[in-house]
Amino acid sequence: MTAIEPKIVPFASAAAAGGAPFVTTPVRYDGILLAGFGGPEGQGDVIPFLRNVTRGRGIPDERLEEVAHHYRHFGGVSPINGQNRALKAALEVELARRGHELPVYWGNRNWAPYLEEAVQDAAANDHTTLLAFATSAYSSFSSCRQYREDFARVLDETGLADKVTIDKVRPFYDHPGFVDAFENGVREAVERFLAEGVGASEIQILFSTHSIPTADAERSGARDIDWGPGGAYAAQHEAVAAWVMDRVRQALPAAADVHWELVYQSRSGPASQPWLEPDVCDVIGELPARGRRAVVVVPVGFMSDHMEVLWDLDTEAAEAAEAAGLSFVRTPTPGVSPAFVAGIVDLIEERLDGRPLAERGAVTGLGGSFDVCRPGCCENIRAGFKPAAAGLVP
Question: Is the separation of the CB atoms in 345 and 94 below 8 Å?
């Protein structure tokens, strides 16, 4: 008889509980947990939502109003909940098409429907072995560990920690289904500008992602890997951007002289706190002096067109490009494209089948995309370590 490994990963399925970085034992999951950020769905929701996002930080409502106007510009409605409804429906269709009878439970960290409701609904239906897909592709506190901490908190607060287990799909920053939209978008934008007579050396590609505090970036990813400056978070984005540009140049030899760099957006911390730079709008303002006539902004850090894309890129970055006299294109996010939805189900099947590492989809070869997060990864230096699912303590 095979010995059962001791459970050293809290809240985990039996297959993941032993702490191996990759789970190659098939798991009979009985539900998928789609874990989102959440967003307001009316003007009256905006400030309560922002209080949830910033809870514990003591930010007064007057300062929250500085961010609230982004949402109020769109009627107080964030597109993110609608996008997750569409993603949930698309996943259910693709799972059924592949013969998986797996319900998808959707819950958010910061707005209704909350994760608590989703986990309680699953447990009420006797679906107690859950695999979570968090709607964020990269390694950092806010994009990975914070979701894992919320899974642990929800299981504890609902009294379901002894009944329900939650594993998590690995970071999927370089999965073929995720990067497909970025590759296609850049290629099409470059083709358009070349056809309009813009020289390749006059085109600038800006791969944009959410800025995070530098201290969080440096602690992102597994601690035993030397990621370089900016930790796993910066390294993963750089690797994806480099892969996209390599593919575009292979498809379009005329694009050999197109320039690119990684930039950041949506900074929200105090001026005294270092965050990842440079800012997308600052770089756009410098492009004419570099001899650029056109800019392509690629939202490589984002799954869908939520508020940071609609406001920070489609509004502010577009205005910066206009002020600089540059032609501007913002490329698509994955959204609910067939390639992305199929890619998510591929990630789910990795865990259902216990697929070995060599058979998993990844385009960059960077690595560090673990099924079970390693000890101490993605620390929040301001709050320290809290209990977290799907990873080794702390």
Answer: yes
* Contact status, residue 138 vs residue 144, Cβ threshold 8 Å: yes
The domains found in the chain, sorted by start residue, are 31-172+337-359 (3.40.50.1400), 176-330 (3.40.50.1400)
Torsion sign, CA atoms 4, 9, 14, 15: negative
CA distances from 251 to 65, 74, 170, 188 (A): 46, 38, 30, 11
Distance CA 104, CA 122 (A): 9
pLDDT (tens place) for every residue of the chain, 394 residues total: 344 456 799 999 999 999 999 999 999 999 999 999 999 999 999 999 999 999 988 889 998 998 899 999 999 999 999 999 999 999 999 999 999 999 999 999 999 999 999 999 999 999 999 999 999 999 999 999 999 999 999 999 999 999 999 999 999 999 999 999 999 999 999 999 999 999 999 999 999 999 999 999 999 999 999 999 999 999 999 999 999 999 999 999 999 999 999 999 999 888 889 999 999 999 999 999 999 999 999 999 999 999 999 999 999 999 999 999 999 999 999 999 999 999 999 999 999 999 999 999 999 999 999 999 999 999 998 889 999 999 999 9
Phi, psi of 203 (to 5 degrees): -105, 135
Residue 47 near residue 61 (C-beta atoms within 8 A): yes
3-state SS assignment for residue 219: coil
Q: Write the DSSP assignment of 73-136 as a string of letters.
A: TTTTB-THHHHHHHHHHHHHHHHHHTT----EEEEESSSSSBHHHHHHHHHHTT--EEEEEES-
∠ Cα 85 147 276 (to 5°): 105
Say if residues 185 and 344 touch (Cβ distance below 8 Å).
Answer: no
Q: Is 59 exposed, middle or buried (0-12, 13-18, 19+ CB in 10 A)?
A: middle
Distance from C-alpha of 324 to C-alpha of 327, rounded to nearest angstrom: 9
Distance CA 116, CA 63 (A): 28
What's the token pair of residue 104? 């998808």
DSSP-derived letter for residue 141 is I
Tokens of 232: 């796993």
Containing H/E element for 54?
Answer: none
**pTM of this prediction exceeds 0.90:** yes
